[in-house]
């Protein structure tokens, strides 16, 4: 059974894809919630709680929010998350992921706010040395993005040892899907993720989906990923908050299903769900894409009582398709 979460909870990056689903789940569990977001990639209309448009660079703005709302805990989603961009512009990633997280931790410390749950990633592991990948897999990231996320994990561990901060590092595999009512979903600009791109082809917004390589060491030669429903991710954040508030100092765990699907399997399932042809063309591989990333973690179940419940690929695609049909031009921000 889930334990209650004591609010207020400050959700940093709560106007974004995973953040907005988590905010909604917190509200459904009657947890007082406030969102802080700079709207660089998030959507104001995805938020129905008290909202503060503040950038994490703005220490005074952060301090004011902590003073005004006195949050008991923080959930931190605000980060840059494109591997390719991080290779071209690592400065942006060290500034926004590492130094802005430091700002946040310092303001938490000043306000006596001790608990933080944050988005980590399987990219902190680097190339798999074991498949499926356990929670204890060696962390040797191969991109600046993965390295900045590992720095964030280390910062929180060190703040835990020195200042008693309690943290949960949730290492997502491939976030996908949308809310069941079609209100919330994935709307990035530019879009780089497989499932929304495939659905845009189904909608006729793109002519074809480019498949990045078909000569990997996998059954059909295309890359295998572990797709996890965004509602399942949101559920894990709620459980992690309760776990910290129950007195746990630190948890770091994978959030995945343990099953992988190839790019061609995703496209095939999307054709069945959307009943559109979805033309696909094989092109060169994307540098740095490991052939298989599948979670073998057991900690989330053992420590949080969490497991994926809505993450069958067909369910993920059905929910994502509903969002895409409802929001033909993405979120309609004014
Ligand atoms: N992919 C693809 N075509 C695209 C986008 C992605 O073939 O237009 C592949 C990519 O190589 C990877 C998988 O789809 O194997 C999932 O990619 P995504 O960018 O969604 O997530 P990632 O695993 O890179 O975080």
Strand-helix topology:
Elements: E1 9-12, H1 17-28, E2 33-37, E3 51-53, H2 59-69, E4 73-76, H3 83-88, H4 90-111, E5 115-121, H5 144-163, E6 166-172, E7 174-176, H6 194-202, E8 209-212, E9 224-225, E10 227-229, H7 230-245, E11 250-255, E12 261-262, H8 263-274, E13 280-283, E14 292-293, H9 299-304, H10 313-326
Parallel strand pairs: 1-2, 1-4, 2-3, 4-5, 5-6, 6-11, 7-10, 8-13, 9-14
Antiparallel strand pairs: 9-12
Helix pairs in contact: 1-7, 2-4, 4-5, 6-8, 6-10, 8-10
The site of uridine-5'-diphosphate has 14 residues, from α6 and β8.
Task: Summarize the structure in words.
- With 334 residues, the protein is of the alpha/beta class.
- It has a domain at 9-176 and 228-257: NAD(P)-binding Rossmann-like Domain (Rossmann fold).
- It is built from ten helices and 14 strands.
- α4 packs parallel to α5 (144-163) and α6 (194-202) runs parallel beside α8.
- It starts with 8 loop residues before the first strand and ends in an 8-residue tail after the last helix.
- Bound molecules: uridine-5'-diphosphate.
